[in-house]
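ARCHIVE CARD
CATEGORY: sequence design from structure
SOURCE FIELD: tokenized fold
FIELD CONTENT:
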């Protein structure tokens, strides 16, 4: 393992299949001045359905161990609550934990997908919390939890070249299962971890396989050049056939993509990003009308479409509320959505017929949406 003193949150899926036959209409009118930033998420358009994973049936697990990796990150070990083995999962997959009615959160599975005796997840306590991380940090060992395997929106792809895994902070978590899978398959890979403080360099050491050795690099930005400079240096060393999988905050993902993507072949950069709280990622307010004669609602800049609809008594199913899982997906009948999610593919976003309503907004004067 190499430790350096300076630095270097989706398969091919048919998103429209998640829209059901019962529908109602929403009409959105946009006020001027809305934000225009749109995160990107690349995918292989030619991947077959074998790469897709639908959500598994709910099942029960027992919290058998919990420990603090740092002041804000808690590691959980979960085992089957019955004699049955745990369902198999894919590298990059996440576990949906159903904490309470209307409160489901997704956490990346850390271990080798070949492991069937336990699941491990790491949860960072957010401040302020939207409920999920606070509830997880309050769980006691012995608690029975209802869970399910979430659709894998961040899978490994086949390819002849090497693989570069880039993680910032707790964004390393989905990359750990990928590293296990790549090592077992005999594929060449590097795992590069970025953090801010020197004290965090060894935060996840106990989760790394010592056999990975020199394949693992760690960088603390407080001790050297900015991460963007290290990423620029890294780009110069990458063969064009390299596949890059990056996970972390939006700013880190954007920087990594800007620095590395021009060096890569088409469709070789894959990401899973942590979205900001919808209440903090808004923009100018806009009006919402349910149906041609429906009540006009105001969506302020510090609230999401989903939040306003719920306040008006409209039931909207959600899970992650970060633009990652697609549970709140709706069909766009008219208008142009402003995409802020990491669920839809680039072609789906360009087509403009779908929207993730927990984070995305409106980029035109009017949107008409369909939802069961």
């Amino acid at each position: 393992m190499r430790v350096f003193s300076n630095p270097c949150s989706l398969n091919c899926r048919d998103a429209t299949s998640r829209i059901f036959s019962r529908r109602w209409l929403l009409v959105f009118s946009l006020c001027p001045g809305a934000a225009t930033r749109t995160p990107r998420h690349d995918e292989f358009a030619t991947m077959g359905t074998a790469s897709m994973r639908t959500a598994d049936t709910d099942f029960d697990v027992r919290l058998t161990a919990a420990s603090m990796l740092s002041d804000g990150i808690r590691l959980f070990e979960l085992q089957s609550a019955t004699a049955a083995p745990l369902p198999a999962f894919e590298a990059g997959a996440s576990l949906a934990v159903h904490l309470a009615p209307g409160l489901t959160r997704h956490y990346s599975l850390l271990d080798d997908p070949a492991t069937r005796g336990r699941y491990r997840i790491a949860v960072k306590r957010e401040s302020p919390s939207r409920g999920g991380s606070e509830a997880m940090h309050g769980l006691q060992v012995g608690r029975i939890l209802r869970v399910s395997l979430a659709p894998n929106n961040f899978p490994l792809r086949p390819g002849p070249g090497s693989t570069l895994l880039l993680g910032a902070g707790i964004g390393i978590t989905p990359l750990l299962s990928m590293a296990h899978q790549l090592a077992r398959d005999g594929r060449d890979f590097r795992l590069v971890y970025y953090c801010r403080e020197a004290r965090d360099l060894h935060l996840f050491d106990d989760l790394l396989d010592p056999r990975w050795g020199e394949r693992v690099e760690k960088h603390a930005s407080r001790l050297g050049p900015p991460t963007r400079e290290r990423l620029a240096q890294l780009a110069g060393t990458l063969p064009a056939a390299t596949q890059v999988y990056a996970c972390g905050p939006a700013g880190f993902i954007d920087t990594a993509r800007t620095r590395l993507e021009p060096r890569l072949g088409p469709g070789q950069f894959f990401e899973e990003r942590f979205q900001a709280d919808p209440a903090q990622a808004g923009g100018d307010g806009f009006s919402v009308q349910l149906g041609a004669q429906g009540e006009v609602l105001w969506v302020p800049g510090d609230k999401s479409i989903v939040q306003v609809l719920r306040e008006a008594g409209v039931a909207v199913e959600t899970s992650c509320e970060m633009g990652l899982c697609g549970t709140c997906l709706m069909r766009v009948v008219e208008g142009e959505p402003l995409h802020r999610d990491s669920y839809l593919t680039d072609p789906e976003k360009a087509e403009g017929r779908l929207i993730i309503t927990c984070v995305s907004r409106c980029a035109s004067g009017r949107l008409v949406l369909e939802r069961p």
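CARD ANNOTATION: The chain has three domains: 2-9+153-274, 16-41+282-371, 55-149. DSSP finds six helices and 20 strands in the chain.
SHELF: design records, drawer C
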